[in-house]
Amino acid sequence: MLFEGSFGKLEQKQEEGAKRIYTSAQGLVNIVEDLLNVSKIEQGGMKYEFMPTDLGKLVTDLFGEMKIPAESKGLAFSIDIPANETFMVNADPTKMKQVLLNITDNSIKYTQQGFVKISLRKENGKVIFSVTDNGMGISSETKAKLFEKFSRGEGGKINTGGSGLGLYLAKQIAIAHKGDVVIESEGLGKGSTFSVVLPALAS
C-alpha cells in the first residue's frame, strides 16, 4: 500500500525503508511456504495436477520474469531454445515453474559478475532445462549434500536470508514428475550448471 501511494507520495528515504520492510516480509513468506511444502511432501500430502505442458512456454515466461533482477546485477542473461520445436512434458505447470524459478534465481544470486544462461533441449527421450553460470561454483563436498534439507553450501555466506530448502523441494518435485535435478561443477570459482531432466511426452 505504501508503494502504491495509498498514504501519499513517499520521499526517497521512506521508499527505501518501505522496500526493506517488503523484502524482509517477502523473505519470511517464502520461508514459511517452503516449510509448509516440506511438511506436505514428507506426509504425502503434496497435490499435483499433471497435464501436457509446453516447457518452452514456461521457460520463455521465466526468462521475462528474471531478466530485470539479472540485469540489475550487471549480468549477461540469455536464453537458448531451438526455434520451431516443442518441449512437451507431463507436469503440474505451477509447481514445475516453481522449480525452474528456484534454480534460476539461485544462479543469479550466486553469480556476482559474468553471465547466466538458461537453455532447453531434447536428448534421449528427455527434456532438459539447464541454467549455466560462471559464478562461485560448487565443491565436491558440497555437491554431495546440496539437496539435503537446510543445506546452504558456500552460497549461504552470500545469501543469508534463504531457508536452505529450495533445492531439496526442487529435487522432490522433479522426482514426483519422474525426473531429476542434477549438478555439474568443476569446483569453487568455476561456475556451475543445474539441470532439470524430465521425460518428454511422445509427439
Number of separate strands: 7
N- and C-termini, Cα separation: 47 Å
Give the count of helical stretches: 5
Low-confidence regions = none
Strand arrangement within the widest β-sheet reads 2-4-5-7-6
What's the mean pLDDT score? 83
* Class inferred from helices and paired strands: alpha+beta
> C-alpha Rg, in Å?
18 Å
Shape: globular
Question: Could you explain the architecture of this structure?
Answer:
The protein is of the alpha+beta class and 203 residues long. It contains 5 helices and 7 strands, in the order αβαββαββααββ. Strands 2-4-5-7-6 form a 5-stranded mixed β-sheet, with helices on one face. Strands 1-3 form a two-stranded antiparallel sheet. A hairpin with a 7-residue loop joins strand 6 and strand 7 (192-199). The termini are far apart.
Short overview:
The chain is an alpha+beta fold. The protein has helices at 12-42, 55-72, 93-109, 140-143, 166-176; strands at residues 51-54, 76-80, 88-91, 115-123, 126-133, 180-184, 192-199. Helices cover 40% and strands 21% of the residues.
Walk me through the topology:
Layout: H1 12-42, E1 51-54, H2 55-72, E2 76-80, E3 88-91, H3 93-109, E4 115-123, E5 126-133, H4 140-143, H5 166-176, E6 180-184, E7 192-199
Parallel strand pairs: 2-4
Antiparallel strand pairs: 1-3, 4-5, 5-7, 6-7
Helix pairs in contact: 1-5, 2-3, 3-5
